[in-house]
Design a protein that fits this description.
Elements lengths: L1 H10 L3 H4 L4 E6 L7 E8 L2 E5 H8 L6 E2 L3 E6 L2 E6 L4 E4 L2 E4 L5 E3 L2 E5 H11 L5 E3 L4 E3 L7 E9 L2 E8 L8 E5 L4 E7 L5 H4 L8 E9 L2 E8 L5 E7 L4 E7 L6 H12 L3 E6 L16 H20 L2 E4 L11 H8 L4 E8 L9 E6 L5 H11 L9 H4 L3 H12 L2 H19 L3 E7 L11 E8 L3 H7 L2 H23 L6
Parallel strand pairs: 1-12, 21-22, 21-23, 23-26, 24-25
Antiparallel strand pairs: 1-2, 2-3, 3-10, 4-5, 5-6, 6-7, 7-8, 9-10, 11-12, 13-14, 14-20, 15-16, 16-18, 17-18, 19-20, 24-26
Helix pairs in contact: 7-14, 12-14
The protein binds zinc ion.
């Protein structure tokens, strides 16, 4: 704030030069307000604002009144009165001393522009901003919801990260490809400083970005360098940023392809998905223990171990108690270029005697049985806002997505088997085995993916165990060992590794 004012007063000496006789300053209540033009006159070599016009146009109630002798109006809830020839501004019951008396100028009452701004700033509008170059005064600027745009380039494309101050929803965002190499993105309800954001974004696939504020919508017109093979976006609820991924068409050389193939096989990024969260508590124990708390605790324990002991990069779909829609979870995994996706849950059964662990992979066909098994974990969809996303998943689409997964069926099965093996060894519980089911959370993840049901929260003995930190640690250790075994086995086959 201090710097801004130094800058402003420095420009105070330049402003008269810009002034040619009578001009105006555009005064806006907020950023989005079109504003009103208030006259500014040059007098004694300085710009003077028509304070009477200011009060007449910006007063908050119709009490404002001006004569050639006095003017008053309500600004920011304060009663402001000025008198021609007097250096005192009356503010409610107090006074503010101007360095020069108010000048009468025809029917207007003038105050030195910068003294008027100083008065408004110190007494009424602490956040006001004034741009001398643009001759714009904003009395109550709202903070922009778009903070910054950052470009990251990858071998297979570029990511545009839009940093925001509030969490936007998917339905606020619209992206479409235009003609002649343009891509457009609109964010409804967002505001951004289009001057500050209008920088050079010439990097990777991008040639440039033009930010536009159009009413309540913030738009980015993205100029592409070359054709893209596709794009998608997701919202990271933790950082509140919007990620737009632009994919390059693949035109790799044979050696690049080999390199890429071997990199593809390195288990260097593991995506951990703590089941449920936020308004979705998951299954509940008889004493109110919530599945979402247990799954998060195990996930964080496992993640720490993987980072510390295996040195792998760990990506979490959530690290706190937040709600993440099911369909977002595999997206997060794909965007992170994950090599394994592990969704952690606790089981529940109407028959409270049922106990033990079971681990699933996505069924290649959406059979009735597969749907039935996944019913409980899919239930969360009822809590989600865009339920239609799932209704749109027809049998064919499911099969297509499952086929993409089927490239990893063997790996998913291996991993699931290793998980159950380690549970038996460390937890000494009943293993209900490896199964296939139609879990939405596994749908669309292009990597080996499993969903593990650690124990039954509906069973008294299992619940008592789940509530013990030492048991949750053992669960995390079992999963860690399974991942470690899987990683070692699969990386052994990579050439030149
Ligand atoms: Zn669950």
């Amino acid at each position: 704030m201090v710097k801004k004012w130094q800058y402003t007063f420095l420009l105070a000496f330049i402003f008269p030069v810009l002034l040619q006789g009578r001009t105006t300053v555009n005064v806006k209540q907020t950023n989005l307000d079109p504003g009103v033009e208030i006259p500014v006159h040059e007098l004694h070599g300085y710009p003077w604002i028509s304070a009477s016009e200011f009060l007449l146009n910006l007063s908050e109630d119709p009490l404002s009144d001006t004569t050639s002798r006095a003017a008053h109006g309500r600004l920011g809830g304060h009663m402001v009165t000025i008198h021609g020839g007097s250096a005192f501004i009356h503010l409610d019951v107090s006074t503010y001393h101007l360095p020069a008396p108010v000048e009468r100028y025809g029917h207007e009452l003038l105050v030195p522009l910068y003294e008027w701004i100083r008065f408004l700033h110190t007494r009424i509008y602490p956040d006001l901003t004034f741009s001398p170059e643009r001759r714009t005064l904003i009395l109550e600027p709202e903070s922009y919801s778009i903070r910054d745009i950052v470009i990251q380039n990858f071998k297979n494309g570029s990511t545009l990260r839009i940093e925001t101050t509030r969490l936007f929803q998917e339905q606020d965002i619209n992206i479409w490809e235009g003609r002649n190499g343009w891509l457009y993105c609109t964010i409804y309800g967002a505001t951004g400083d289009t001057i500050q954001l209008n920088r050079t974004y010439d990097s990777g696939i991008l040639r440039g970005i033009i930010p536009i504020q159009s009413g309540e919508t913030f738009q980015l017109s993205i100029r592409l360098r070359n054709a893209i093979s596709g794009y998608d976006f997701y919202i990271d609820p933790e950082t509140r940023s919007i990620h737009i991924n632009l994919r390059k068409p693949s035109s790799l050389t044979a050696s690049e392809r080999t390199l890429e193939a071997s990199e593809k096989w390195l288990i260097d990024t593991i995506v951990l998905d703590a089941g449920h969260g936020g308004r979705d508590p998951g299954a509940l124990g008889a004493d109110g223990t919530r599945e979402k708390d247990i799954t998060l605790d195990i996930t964080l324990r496992l993640g720490r171990m993987l980072e510390r002991e295996l040195g792998t990069h760990v990506v979490y779909t959530r690290k706190t108690d937040v709600f993440i829609p099911l369909h977002q979870r595999p997206k997060i995994a794909n965007n992170a270029n994950g090599k394994l996706f592990i969704s952690i849950h606790c089981n529940s059964h109407d028959n409270r005697r049922v106990s033990g662990s079971e681990t699933f992979l996505l069924a290649p066909r959406l059979t009735e049985e597969a749907i039935k098994i996944a019913e409980t974990e899919n239930q969360v969809i009822r809590l989600e806002e865009n339920q239609e996303i799932y209704e749109k998943i027809t049998n064919e689409q499911y099969i297509l997505a499952a086929m993409a997964q089927s490239a990893f069926v063997k790996e998913s099965e291996d991993l699931a088997a290793l998980v159950e093996k380690n549970y038996i060894r460390n937890l000494k519980t009943t293993s209900r085995g490896v199964k296939q089911a139609g879990f939405y959370v596994l749908l669309g993840a292009s990597m080996p993916s499993i969903l593990t049901e650690v124990s039954f929260i509906s069973n008294k003995t299992d619940l008592q165990k789940l509530k013990r930190a030492s048991y949750r640690q053992k669960v995390a250790e079992s999963l860690f060992q399974a991942i470690k075994d899987f990683k070692e086995k699969h990386e052994k086959d990579i050439p030149n590794h």
